[in-house]
Amino acid sequence: MSEAVTVVEPRVDAGPTFEEYVAARSAALWRSAWLLTGDRHKAEDLVQTALMKCWGRWSRIAPEAVETYVRKTMVTTYTDWWRRRWNGELPTGELPETAAAPVDGGIRRDVLVALAALPRGQRAVVVLRFFDDLTEAQTAAALGISVGTVKSQTSRALRTLRTSGLLEDTHD
Amino acid sequence: MTDHTSHTTHGTDDPQLRDLLTAAVPDDAPTLDAARLARDARTARTRRRTATAVGGVLAVGATVAGVGLLGGQDPAARDDTTATTAPYDAPTCPATLPELPDAVWAVDSLDGLASVRICPDLDATAGPLLSVDEKGQVLASMDALVQSDRFGEQVDVAETFDPERCATISVVNSRQSLQLTFDDGRSVLLPTAMCSPISVAGREIDGGALGTAYLAALDGQRDDLTYSHPFSGPLPCAGRGSVPDAARPGREQLVAAVLCTPDGEEVAPLSDAQLADLNDAWRSAKEFVQDPTADDESECTAPEDAPSYLVVGTDHSDVMRFSDTGCGFLVWSGWRPGDSQALPTTLADLGLTP
């Protein structure tokens, strides 16, 4: 009879296996997802959902594009997720619990409140550019938008964050 | 891991924002089980390939979620870490709105736009006027657009003013306006009367289209931000004038309703049970398109007499009207031009007798 199917086909080009990538990068992805969603459990759900989507295509993703591909999937899932939430569908998984009191409640709350005031697209740009340290070109690739749009989204987001008081006003 | 040399600088905001984001994120990220993820992904793929009811699974989930929403316990709203009151903190409308000839008809730029709010003309009604207190309640409970970029995006795609079309239409004399507030404290009131040419950043937009652009932007904000407001406004059967809302079936919760006669007299408020049934119907609303080929003998032609109706309040302080068509459903006219929604219930189903 047939042998058990391997989880992931061996990569000829020595890129990370799915398991290797999850072990190495899931924590970093979760931190980005936390900034996007503002909730531990939603962040975990988002990362898991994105990784599961990528699993089936893993062998076809170029090694140098893995990180971009996974982040793009995560951001796309996030955007689609929040839109469908208000149409009566809910993401699978456990409902979020109320966040536990943070170690540094002031900064954490201030950041989350400020990010919550940004449109989804600007929030994603801020997280990718300023937390994940992606370049404008990498951010554009991850979000499927132009570099020009990344620039304008960044500019608008920073203006909003300054107005919110999270960032000190600068004299550029 | 981090290559700081790859950054495009943004002045002094780079390290400040980066430090804040880094400080805010919890250190204890959960450990994901890669093998379990792969197993779950394989199971999901098998399910997709063999089942035809993935949409049915989601629909069941939606139904379960709907039941959970009956008591106003929206799971999405429990996420208090992203809840905001900003839409209610924006500057309020002035007590007096300008008459159309005296209004400002142009704004040079939307740069620095902080918030946008619709200022309804609460005196534009054939019925009894609201009291001063009631007007204050209505205005204080309305949410404003604080994701101001959305307004610019909608204005960019709004219809330009068409003088030929408007040559045959009289300008609707309404004082309803959009209040634009800017970062530097300036505010501008722009009319939203149909067939009023309003110049926005050099582009002439029909006033009616400008109002629709605002509602579309507010609709997007309500998808994006978590907020609601305890409904405290009046629910008059008549006399409230036209106050635009950005409600969408199933998103906003219906929190109060009254039954009204065709003459605009209040009969009675709905009970909790009736409101729960109405919420079910609201969540199940579907687009209503009148069939122009319908047989005149059909029982579903428009009744000669004006129907009884419900005036309904939401958790975003929208006030809507649901009319009983006599055809087995209630009808609500949405904010998008031409949008009507049919709610699968009737006044009789709800146990209401006008």
TrEMBL record, chain A:
GO terms for molecular function: DNA binding; sigma factor activity. Pfam families: Sigma70_r2, Sigma70_r4_2. Residues 109-161 form the RNA polymerase sigma factor 70 region 4 type domain. Keywords: DNA-binding, Sigma factor, Transcription, Transcription regulation. InterPro entries: RNA_pol_sigma-70-like, RNA_pol_sigma-70_dom, RNA_pol_sigma-E_actinobac, RNA_pol_sigma70_r2, RNA_pol_sigma70_r4_t2, RNA_pol_sigma_r2, RNA_pol_sigma_r3/r4-like, WH-like_DNA-bd_sf. SUPFAM superfamilies: Sigma2 domain of RNA polymerase sigma factors, Sigma3 and sigma4 domains of RNA polymerase sigma factors. It comes from the Bacteria. One of its GO terms (biological process) is DNA-templated transcription initiation. Residues 28-86 form the RNA polymerase sigma-70 region domain. Gene3D superfamilies: 1.10.1740.10, Winged helix-like DNA-binding domain superfamily/Winged helix DNA-binding domain. PANTHER family: ECF RNA POLYMERASE SIGMA FACTOR SIGM (PTHR43133:SF50), RNA POLYMERASE ECF-TYPE SIGMA FACTO (PTHR43133). Belongs to the sigma-70 factor family. ECF subfamily. This is SigE family RNA polymerase sigma factor. The lineage of its organism: Bacteria, Bacillati, Actinomycetota, Actinomycetes, Propionibacteriales.
From TrEMBL, chain B:
It comes from the Bacteria. This is Uncharacterized protein.
